Amino acid sequence: MNLIQVVKNSAASSPDKVFLVCDGEKRTFKGFYERIKTLGAGLDSLGVKRGDKVALLMHNCIEYIETYFAVISRGAVIVPVNTFLKAEELAYILNDCGVKALFTSSDFKDIVRDAEKTGTATLKNVVSLDELKGIEHLKYSSLFGKGSLEPVGAGCDELAAILYTSGTTGHPKGAMLAHKNLVTDVENSKDVIAVTEKDVFMCFLPMFHSFSFMANVMVPLYCGCRMVILRSIQPFTKVVKNLLLQRVTIFVAIPQVFILMAEKHIPFYVLLLNSMRICISGGASIPVEFIRKFESKFRKPLVEGYGLSEAAPICALNPLFGRRVPGSIGPAINNVEIRIRDDGGKELPAGETGELTIKGDNVMMGYYNNPEATAEALKDGWLYTGDIGKKDPDGYVYILERKKDLIIVNGMNVYPREVEEVLYKNPAVADASVVGEKNDMHGEIPVAVVVLKEGASADEHSLRKFCRDHIANYKVPHRVEFWKELPKNSTGKVLKRDIRKMIEERKQRA
Amino acid sequence: MNLLQVVKKAAMQEGKKTFLVCGGQKRTFAGFYDRVLSVGAGLAKLGVKKGDRVAIMLHNSVEFIEAYFGIISTGASVVPLNVFLKSEETAYILNDCKVKAFFTSSDFKGVVEGIKPGSVPTLENIISVDGLAGIGHLKYESLITPDKIGEIKMSIEDMAVIIYTSGTTGKPKGAMLSHKNLVSNVENCRYPLGIKQEDVFLVFLPMFHSYSFTANVLLPLYMQCKLVVLKSVQPFTNVILTLIKHRVSIFISIPQIYTLLAERKLPGWFFMLHNLKMAVSGGASLPVETLKKFTSKFKIPLLEGYGLSEASPICSFNHRDRPAKPGSIGQAIDNVEIKIADDSGKEVKRGASGELIVKGDNVMIGYYNNEEATREAIKDGWLYTGDIASMDGEDYVFILDRKKDMIIVNGMNVYPREVEEVLFKHPSVLDAAVIGDLNAEHGEIPIAVVRLKDNVKGDEHELRKFCREHLANYKVPHRIEFWADLPRNASGKVLKREIKRMLSEGKKI
Description:
The complex is a heterodimer of chains A (510) and B (509). Chain A is of the alpha/beta class. In chain A, the strands form six sheets. In chain A, strands 2-1-11-10-12-13-14-15 form an eight-stranded mixed sheet. In chain A, α6 packs across α7 (210-223). In chain B, β13 (278-281), α12 (288-298) and β14 (302-307) form a beta-alpha-beta unit. At the A-B interface, α1 and α6 of A face α1 and α7 of B.
């Protein structure tokens, strides 16, 4: 099945059922499909053709999902953009894959304008939900009323989406996902948690994130479930209110939200009245003590899973029925294999520690225009995740640490290199290294250690501001420390492990 | 979805609904899934595992479908065998793809007996639905215990089925179909055919045939429809009574049956009582005359389509919600592309003739163990069908001719080479050519023209008997003519077109 057939099937089997609810606005499955075909005609009028790239920079809303599928219905490729990005980062992505049209809203006016200033050669059209002052653009609503177009055919191996994730080399990489990657990931994970059409979902995590889009949009769309859209997790009382009023049964969030809920005072009637059947945590790992706290407080199962954008993203999930193991990410989902390998790529027996590798129909086609990174990530059909873990004899997988120096902030990946590159641009900086530090609120936070040039002066505040001008806020170091030099090995490689240890020691002393 | 997920989904969504009815037997979707997992567990105990091949030679039955999905549940591939095959042909296939186990019944005792012990070294188990006196075998029911097979990881790209079709080189070729090929084929024709869950299907065409299995078994399974299984089209009265009794709404068949239905006198009550909504014709081309007669008599749409085993098999149909063009095989199904190409693969102008080529998720992985034939058939992702066709301005396709010399008998492919090879084996035959002749009853029939060795007297009866010993009956020439020589071109190639012309004019050499 391709992605459009998923929409068409739901429209055929539950035409009049409400699919999307967002601030009083509603779409039935059939209405949603009709809007896609209408918007498809609008896209066609813009000259969007098969294989073209269309970027999507919006907060959660019905239009986000409409645009996503309308683009795909024309055989074009959707490029969801992280809403926290800055102009430079946006421009990089638009240019990297040659985006032809950008769908956005006035929330991103400044970023879009500044990105255009830095040069976006391929970008022909900016479409906005509302007025974008100072930028040539088309209104989203103007794309409707140009008739309706039947979706163009697509094989399930065809490219559907490019998801940009932070890259080890400093620039983000575009993971190319085929229709089959996304559709099979639903098919192979929905039975693990026994989703039925009676379930109700709620999406407050940003939809650009692969985990949020899969669990909160694709699964309800495929299974014919109602889905309540919230623009953001703030205010949290709105989340709670919707949880109760909309009778949400499947609650999907990142660890920080569950930790908050486990810790925060929750009115007794919420605990009494909530209709949750199951809670799913993904994006980063969640400490076992919080799973226990949450479960004993809410008396609902909280299952942890594991995934990465390169695998569409779900790879493993603790089963709803059967043994759930807190601290484990569960066994691989149906028809997906996880094997632990040593540095030579040899498979390791149960209990031994090595790199997690994944095989299945969910594994991406490769990185866009980046054969080198692709060859490094995909070997023999196996995706090398860079995560270090082990598997018990029953197939339950445990993540122990990360091979790459990746930092995960609120479920979003940050490669230190990307932040370091920005620090190097500052005239006062001679050397810099960024490491992750555990943090209750965000999971992890980036911390920078900087060596200043002789005679140069800079303070923490100015360096952090400098970073904020260039990269998304979540990537900006929470703390900048000034050291005389960085610990390095004989070949000059920075020893991040030592830095982490030294930071830890200082903190304890303090 | 892989094929097993299709079964699981139906079992979860419509567990209590009746899926299969065959004589007195019935299976609900949940009951069917249960039996499939039991057969899978039984096979696993016999050592069948992912990557193995298991053949089925059975007439239409509940067991055929159970065995099919039971094999799939182990991760092994199914090899459905044409029930008309003889021992030699069967042994060839079992050896070609190294079959490990073989489902059959006493109906095929003769065929199995004819396979010399030890001639298929990989074959470890013969499983019979009802016993096979004198041959070592396991009973089908003995496979079924309360044990259920556990989850086997399967990619939708994994090979699920190998379908053997007559080959241009004399030996059948195994078209490898993946889960994706078969499942997408159903997904891509459900809307063009307008199938609904409340539809009722009837299968009487043999299930080993890709058209019959995809359109008549997989499609109802995917759409969670009831399916009535008949062992054969004979007796035809039984087909008629079943149509009425089970309120069959979708009738899928081959042109010969429609010709029969168009001509045959049917009682008035039939027209008052039947629930037919739509008829589908495939397997060979449908005469326009039959189409007209049938539709004016039954007052339901008769949609002609086109396919080939190598494309899982459905490629095009006259879509249910669009005007049908008589004589046309309709438009490509959803998400499948059809192009008419010249010899270099370039698309020709609309209206011009060229080779029909197909691209989509339904196009096979390739021919089993036959890279050369695969390269010839699939170029740049396009499947070259060997059929000559044209396409009009509205994307309707018209089949004009066949590039290859293939003959289609009752919807089954016969390559002349395969029959000629057998004739050559006969001691009195010096030269032979087999061609197809139009025939109202069978669509086409093979006819042989033979040049005998010097001083040998021709005996048509004896030669046909010789063919019958080596070949499935439908491949055996209906007529054999003895000529003094065969027409050839300068390079020695036999001119089949010339033979056809001479035969039609009653001439000979």
